[in-house]
Amino acid sequence: MRELIHYIAQTLVDSPDDVSVSEVEGNMTTVLELKVAKDDLGKVIGKQGRTAQAMRTILSAVSSKAKKRTVLEIIE
Amino acid sequence: MPKTMEFTAKSIEKALELAGQKLDMNPDDIKHDIISYGSSGIFGLVGVKKAKIRVFIKPGDNKEKRSAPPTENLKDMQPREHAKNLVAAAFQDTEYQPKAKEETIEDKSEPVDDEIVAFGKQVVETIVKKISENASVSVQRHKDKIIYNVEGGQNAVLIGKRGHTLEAIQYLVEKIVNKKNAKRIRVLVDVEGYLDTRRENLVKLATRSAQKAKRVGKPMTLGQMNAHDRRIVHLHLKKDNGVRTQSIGEGYYRRLMIFPKKRKKTKN
Predict the structure, then answer these.
(1) Which residues of B touch A58 (CB under 8 A)?
(2) Alpha carbon of B185 to those of B11, B15, B50, B144, B262: distances in Å?
């Protein structure tokens, strides 16, 4: 899951080296924290949050397999 | 010489409907003259007049229409099998024609780069593999769009509720693919003909709603849809002269409305 978001974020942004994803695992839910370069913030959020929304949708599809919940947070 | 018949009812519309039933014709196709518009009087009590129309029947006309009853001749719905066979062809036929015209004006369409296609495929595969095992991706290339077809795997999960997951994958892939080059390439991601099935359903829904709008005489609102779905409905109902479509609202709350058009007084 972490790799997937890492991969998507890296292909979306201009400076892929600055992308980092950390995983905070909980009992039921996992929180993924996505950090990108300041200039790329808009790229991973998208217009009206569409890109972030799309990533969350895909995440929920992936995690539904494991009967878990995953929350994606984009850290400024 | 056309034969004529007269029908009376509460309103012109009702009279036409009645005529349609009697003659086994689509009310929209009936040639008629209005003798009296009718009025509901005061509170429907005093001075009630019935509407009267004269209908022209051409001897040949009737037979022709008889073979196609009013409910079916409105739309030329594609049979399911046919639609499935022609995934790509159907796309070009019905949906992308107007778009394609625009694009040819803008640039002489060059074929999509191999590199980009391969890169896009890799992206689709990476995402799809995470969601579902043993799914494979095949590519179809068109003038300036790429269609990735995902086969196998758990397609219910891949599609998601009302196609949300599929939409998300498509959106991300399109974004990633187009990041590399200036010219916009359209990307479609399909799971075993899901896009076709959805279009069929939308067309059916549109047809039904348009008929209802015409029957009731009030605008119909279709539930929340994405831009692509609305486009299908708009294009489909463009052929229907009895209704007009419009999208109302902004962003997430944008809805498609179908308005019945007022019937013309005489149709010749």
Answers:
(1) 127, 130-131, 165, 168-169, 172
(2) 53, 52, 60, 5, 41
Number of helices and strands (H, E) in chain A? Answer: 3, 3
How many CB atoms sit inside 10 A of residue B256's CB? 23
- Per-residue tokens: B19: 């005529």
- Are residue B17 and residue B122 in the same domain, yes or no? no
pLDDT in tens, B53-94: 787 776 555 444 444 444 444 444 445 555 455 444 544 544
DSSP H or E run through A75: strand A69-75
Which residue segment(s) compose the domain that B201 sits in?
Answer: 197-260
Structural domains of chain A sorted by starting position, each given as residue range(s) with its CATH number in brackets = 2-75 (3.30.300.20)
Pick from A8, A60, A63 the residue to mutate for testing the B interface (most B CBs within 10 Å).
Answer: A8
* Cα distance between residue B268 and residue B265, in whole Å: 10
pTM: 0.61
ipTM rounded to 2 decimals: 0.90
| Residue B265 clears pLDDT 60, i.e. is over it | no
Based on the fold, state whether residues B206 and B243 are members of the same structural domain. Answer: yes
